Every structure is written in C-alpha cells, then in structure tokens.
C-alpha cells in the first residue's frame, strides 16, 4: 500500500511538473504590450513578459510625458514637460486582446491603457480620458448612452498582384489568405465583426464592426485597426489607413455611425413624429456638430494629408452641412430600409463623414459628443437639409442654408479651433497647447514637401 502511494504521488508530481514545463514552453517569449493612443493616433507601447503581466495590472508602467509630444515621424514638438514628469500607463482589464492564429509568430497580445498620474488620477492630456469626460458630460445632461461604430477603409501596400477592378470578387480572392486571417483574428478579438469587403480604390478594402456603447466604441476601432495591421504584416503587406496614398487617388475615411440609447435600450435618436424621423435631441445634436464642425476638424482630420482627402466632390465633405442620405454632407441621417417599424427604429443612425484614421478614435468621438452636446444645451434648431453637393450651390444659396466651408488645411483648422472658445474649453490648457504644438510641428515638417511626398510619408506610418 505504501509503495502504491509513493508511486502515485510520484506520478502526480511528475504530471504537475510536466504541465508546468509545457505551460512555460507555450508562453516562452510571449510579450504583452501595454498600449495607449496619443495625439497623432499612434498606439505607443511598452511590453512585459507574459509571466509579469499580473504584477503590472494595478500600476502599469511609467512613461515620460514628453513622449506625448511626438509627431508621426522622428520629431518631438516643443512641449511644457521636460525630462522629469512621468505618468503611469495602466492596463484596462476588459480591453485584453490576444490573437493566436499564426504558426510562425507568437500571439499578438495587448491591453489598452489609461494614462494616470502617480496619485491615481486621470492625466489631463490622456486621449482616453478626454473621451471618458465627454461621455460623462453627455450622460449627465441627457441621461442617454452614446453608441457608435467606425468604418475602416484601408489599402494594402506591397501587394505584388496587379489590382483588380473595384468592388469585385477578384479583388477579394487575390488576398484570400489575408481576408481569412483578418476574419479569424477579429473574431478572436471579439469586436463584433460585420463586413469584410472590397472598396473603390486600388487594393482598397473596408471592414466594419457592430456599434458599441461608450468607451468600447473607440476601443473596438483601435483594436480592429491594429489587428488588421498585424494580419497584413504577417503576410508581407502593409495596411495603410492614411487619408490619401496618392494626391489624385481614392481616399481612406474613418466615418463614424452613431445613435443614442435610453435607459430601456431604445434608440433615442429616432422619433417617427419628427422631421426626417430624427428625435428632438438628435436634431439638437446635429445642430451642435454642424456649428462646430469647422473647428473640430483639427481633432477629427488632424494631419496635413487629411486635407488632400477632405473637400468637395470626394464623398468626404467640404462643407459643414446636414443631409439625409447625402454623402457630401458632413453629418447625415442614415434611415433604415427595413419595412418592419421596430427594426427600422433600431437601425436608424447618424453618420459623421469628415474623420480619418490619422486621428485618435478617442479624440474623434470625444469631439463629436461634446459638439453635439453643446447643441443640446443650447436647444439649437435642426439645420436645413441639403440634398445636393453643397459645392454645387451658389454662395448665396449656401448662405441661405447656413452652410460654411470646412478648412482647406490643417493650419486653417487649428486657427478655427483657436477661434472657437467652446471647443477650446473641452481641453485643459496644457492639453490644448501641447496638442496644437504637435500639430504645428507636423505642418512645419510637411511645409516643403510636395503633395506626393506628403502622401508617401503618411502612407508608410499610418
């Protein structure tokens, strides 16, 4: 009996040791990235070995705040911070993303982070904190939740196959392994993947996910883009979300679809008794966005290359205008084609068309929410809808409709933001001044470059 027990215990110990060794082997070399979105929409990061991640969940890792002044290139903008100040990049547990679909590469494993000061408070220059503050203000004023989803347009660079015609099966099947990997990976990421499709441009594709409530809407966008990039990397491509790959080429947008939910989960954007089926709160929100649209372009279309895409006749909008189904309006109503009243009400949504992926999704959604909230606070009336391209109207017609042009450059957008005290008030003085400094530095970098050179530089980093 004793001999049996000794043998059994020996087998048990051996089994536990073997299991531990197998576990160690599986995780050997796996790095977990702690990542955060900065002013230029980059996901900066630090990494820790997998076996260390639990010890980093409470306080994360330190980061010199001067890093927030980085441009998309190798330049650091003038900033107020210097070498001493530091924040903690603290992982948000429910943003854990681990993609493990490749035999020849370790899992892609990361957390999104909050930037916090050493006393545990949100850092006033944190882009995630900016959006959280906007959501809290919107909820406090309206009692509603904000629901949103991005469209992700991108192009595959370094594809050796000649491009097929727009929107065709061939365009999809030429990169069948890529689309298969993206589909598997985004399912693992649990971002509510809805469509994977070819687009109009050369080697251009679009991926969409289901809308999400609040902070998750931005995080789904970030996770989706990074997973697309990773799937492309593994196959020797580069996925670029830049607004323009070539000056005269097709652009990549990051349109935002959004609506509001009441406490019962109903679509509070919809009211069949109101004009265009838009509820009163939705009408006021549209009015606020339209009023502040020229200024918030500095946050939603925030790079020199953005203004090679943004403009009339590009389906990217060139004017601060409102429309129903009009893709040249900067904000539009997207009615559902569903004939069932309940499903039509649920699907009814609004779309903001100016944003692109050189902007942090946190800043895009935060600016959108705050602009719309201002319209609600002031009870602004719904603008007159436009059913043509505003560029085809005369100056007099645009004036009668209250339609103003959007900025034609990043410098103009920054000037318009500076002239809008409401928009400036959404940021702390430090955040506002440091953000503008980064963007002015980007302008200086691009100043002596041709449009083609600007496109090429941004295509390689976005």
TrEMBL record:
UniProt entry keywords in alphabetical sequence: ATP-binding, Ligase, Nucleotide-binding
GO aspect biological process, one term: glutamine biosynthetic process
Pfam families reported in the protein's UniProt record: Gln-synt_C, Gln-synt_N_2
SUPFAM superfamilies registered for this protein in UniProt: Glutamine synthetase/guanido kinase
Gene Ontology MF terms in the entry: ATP binding; glutamine synthetase activity
Transmembrane regions: none
InterPro entries in UniProt: Gln_synt_N, Gln_synt_N_sf, Gln_synth/guanido_kin_cat_dom, Gln_synth_cat_dom
Domain GS catalytic: 127-462
Gene3D superfamilies: Glutamine synthetase, N-terminal domain, Glutamine synthetase/guanido kinase, catalytic domain
Family matches, as PANTHER family: GAMMA-GLUTAMYLPUTRESCINE SYNTHETASE, TYPE-1 GLUTAMINE SYNTHETASE 2
Protein name per UniProt: Unannotated protein
Naturally occurring in which organism (per UniProt): freshwater metagenome
């Amino acid at each position: 009996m004793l001999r049996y027990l000794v043998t059994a215990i020996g087998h048990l110990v051996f089994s536990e040791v073997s299991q531990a060794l197998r576990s160690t082997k599986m995780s050997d070399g796996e790095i977990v990235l702690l990542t955060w979105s900065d002013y230029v929409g980059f996901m900066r990061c630090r990494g820790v070995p997998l076996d260390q991640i639990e010890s980093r969940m409470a306080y994360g890792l330190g980061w010199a705040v001067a890093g927030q002044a980085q441009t998309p290139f190798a330049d650091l903008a003038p900033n107020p911070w210097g070498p001493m100040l530091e924040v903690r990049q603290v992982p948000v547990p429910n943003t854990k993303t681990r993609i493990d679909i490749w035999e020849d590469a370790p899992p892609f494993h990361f957390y999104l982070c909050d930037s916090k000061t050493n006393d545990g408070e949100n850092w006033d220059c944190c882009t995630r904190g900016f959006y959280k503050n906007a959501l809290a203000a919107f909820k406090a004023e309206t009692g509603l939740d904000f629901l949103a989803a991005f469209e992700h347009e991108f192009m595959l660079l370094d594809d050796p196959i000649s491009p097929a015609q727009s929107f065709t099966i061939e365009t999809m099947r030429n990169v069948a392994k890529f689309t298969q990997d993206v589909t598997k990976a985004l399912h693992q990421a649990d971002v509510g993947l809805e469509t994977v499709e070819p687009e109009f441009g050369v080697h251009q594709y679009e991926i969409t996910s289901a809308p999400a409530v609040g902070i998750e809407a931005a995080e789904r966008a970030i996770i989706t883009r990074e997973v697309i990039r990773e799937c492309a990397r593994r196959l020797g491509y580069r996925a670029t979300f830049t607004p323009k790959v070539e000056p005269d080429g097709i652009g990549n947008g990051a349109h935002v679809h959004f609506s509001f939910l009441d406490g019962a989960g109903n679509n509070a954007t919809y009211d069949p008794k109101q004009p265009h089926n838009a509820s009163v709160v939705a009408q006021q929100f549209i009015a606020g966005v339209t009023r502040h649209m020229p200024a918030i372009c500095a946050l939603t279309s925030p790079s020199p290359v953005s203004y090679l895409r943004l403009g009339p006749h590009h389906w990217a909008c060139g004017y601060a205008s409102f429309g129903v189904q009009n893709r040249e309006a900067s904000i539009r109503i997207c009615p559902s084609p569903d004939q069932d009243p309940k499903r039509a009400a649920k699907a009814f949504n609004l779309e903001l068309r100016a944003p692109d992926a050189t902007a942090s999704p946190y800043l895009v959604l935060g600016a959108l929410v705050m602009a719309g909230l201002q319209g609600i606070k002031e009870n602004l009336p719904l603008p007159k809808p436009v059913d043509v391209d505003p560029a085809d109207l005369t100056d007099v017609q645009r004036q009668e409709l209250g339609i103003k042009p959007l900025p034609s450059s990043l410098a103009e957008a920054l000037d318009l933001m500076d002239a809008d005290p409401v928009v400036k008030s959404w940021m702390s003085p430090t955040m506002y001044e440091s953000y503008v400094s980064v963007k002015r530095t980007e302008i200086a970098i691009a100043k002596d470059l041709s449009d083609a050179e600007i496109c090429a530089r941004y295509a390689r980093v976005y």
